[in-house]
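quick one, 294 residues, struct below
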Amino acid sequence: MNNHMEAEAAPRDVPSAFKKILRSVSWTAVHSIIYFGVLIPLIMLWYKVMGNHAQYGEWFNNNGIVMIVVNDIIQITLFYGFIRIAKKENLFKRCNFVRIEPTKIYLIIALSLAAAVFTHTLFALPYLKSNFGGYESVMAFLVDTPSGWSFLLFLLIGSFYKEIFFRGLLFNELRRGLYLPVCYLLLCVIYTYYFELMRDVPLMLYAAVGTCLFTTLYLWTRSMYSAVIMQVLSTGGIYVLRHNAMIEQYHNGYHNTLLVFTFSIIIFCLFKLRALCQTPSAYEHEDFKKYAKQ
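---
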């Protein structure tokens, strides 16, 4: 009897499509306000105040990547407390940090390393390198100039933070009220805008493709660890390649062969991952059902 009454009452408890959209947009806006509310004051403090310090100013001006690490630590802590208070939930469970099967991990590793080589080879092509400097300027700041320890902190902490913020918070909020293709599109726009990557077309497309790829891995595997692993290995792979002067020394023929080879590996890994994620053993985790329903 009670079950019958609850079933009849359920439709009246379901919010309208407009309310769902409004809720998704509102929570996305709230998370974005927190994001900029920390980042902008920190940038001003780092460069405008500490950057002008007589004794330590030069260090602060030359170690902007450390500021990014500080920002990531502050924001992870802040979002953890905010989600705990506002939604009475654990941030890491909400983001679906759950175990992945070993076979999928091996494929993600191969995919990540292939993506690193493909990206580095692609942007080493003379035409892109000479006509579109956006990628080079970003890599110079994030990969080329930092010390080893500061880059390692950025790689590990930053990879977790980016996935928590863009996939775990923003994407999961958007997909509660919007169609999945719209969520992909909005997340690409948000990512490129928030990180100021709209300087040239190749850089913008690179960021958009990466956003779609990480999001797809998250959806397929139903675990945030898949996207984090790819962030760490692909970015770390680019670091190793750039610091060992690899790829640039090759002839254009090798460039083209390497591009085709690594692209083939990427496609193969994606097809295999998709097949594994569709098998009967690939059930949705309870947290994923609760926080990120398809």
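The chain has one domain: 19-279.
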